Amino acid sequence: MTVADRARPLGGLLARDPVVVTAGEGVFADALAAQGVPVRPVDWRPPPSETEAALTAVLSDPGHVDANARAVERLVTARPQLVDVRPARDVLDLDAGTFLHAGPPLDWERASGPMRGALIGAMLLEGLAETPLGAEHALERGAATLESCHAHATVGPMAGVVSPSMWMLVVEDAEYGGTAYCPLNEGLGKVLRFGSYGPDVIDRLDWMGEVLGPVLQAAVRTRGPLDLTALIAEALRMGDELHGRNRAATSLLLRELAPALLAAEDVPRDRAAAALRFTAGNDQFFLNVGMAAAKACADAARNVPGSSLVVAMAANGTDFGVQVSGTGDRWFTVPASVPEGRYLGGHGPDDANPDLGDAAIVETAGMGGFALAAAPAVVRSVGGDVPGALAATHRMYEITLAEHPLLQIPLLSFRGTPVGVDVARVVRTGIPPVIDTGIAGRAAGTGQVGAGLVEPPRAVFTAALTALAEIEQGRG
């Protein structure tokens, strides 16, 4: 409102054309629009009556606002730095028969096709089976111990399977002292994370363990700690949203590491060249780096009593789950949804597996689907259009606790990305988070069949809110 408007009756409201704000069913809005009346629909609905008690208990807690403020402050002020690249057996102390996986805890019997495919591939990679069928039979007999990546401060894209010989990105939080891990990105196409386990997949993973991991380790150690928040902020300004699109971030990472790699001692020239070619040819290479950075930030916000801030969103191909700051390490789960998006090579929705992966950790930290307005080009790979991308980011401001002070969106006049998903706001508004994701084929070994967006059911946030309310009532 201008100064002149303030001096006029009713703030000058009657001097401008009215705009009708509508909520709920679109019949009324459509009728007005048909008559030429300016309409502004609002995506709002009253919370379900069964959530009133939980909402009241959480929102009436005198310490709730301060708890959320502390949690989201830690989330946005964490300082993730890439400090090393090391084998999983060393940094995670994994035994030969222990595999990590994406999402909430899962056993073989409930594992989806792509998760089973990735576990079969891990068995072959580790030499625990000679054939896919032998690996499958061994897994059926309980030959491997399966644990959630998140239980080990780790995140993995899609199936997220981590086995002892895989090399891990090591990200330390210089502000609060935490450490997070993520495996190296394999590239696109038929890869382990999408459930493929053919000879080419295993050969690539062997090469990554023999060549890529040690070369990157030499580069990172020669360069020293790399500030990932600054790199991510610059990538957002260059058109990435850090989930479906990482082209700028990958280029920026290469710019930082290539000189250090050339200066590193004892790295054969042919291996350095091969590592640079592989990384430069994989526009999604930075995704895993960004995931580890987001995990470090989200973990800094854990275990704040009374906080309804989401610190993890993840899926294992069977279940979708969330963890909340004020409820510790407890998972709240619902059946995973099938993403909507664009399919590859003649595939369609019938070929798609339900949502899969830990990569929604980047949405948890204010990137990915929450920053779609920063990356209009990403709609070409996930479906939709540019206005839809802008609208998605605007909706996310309604369910988050803050705007990121460093991660900014040029197209929104450098407004900070929406960050800090609040289960209470999700339940109260009925607006679910929007998450970028790849789409894996249902059958083990199929690989990627598309990419798109997925919105988790509100029920999982209602369950988390109810548990937090019970904790708060117990404390009271």
UniProtKB/TrEMBL annotation:
It comes from Actinomadura meridiana. Pfam families: AllG (PF06545). Gene3D superfamilies: conserved protein of unknown function from Enterococcus faecalis V583 (1.10.10.660), Enterococcus faecalis V583 domain (3.90.1710.10), v583 domain like (3.90.1700.10). It comes from the Bacteria. The lineage of its organism: Bacteria, Bacillati, Actinomycetota, Actinomycetes, Streptosporangiales. InterPro entries: AllG-like, OXTCase_su_AllG_h-dom. This is DUF1116 domain-containing protein. Transmembrane segments: none annotated.
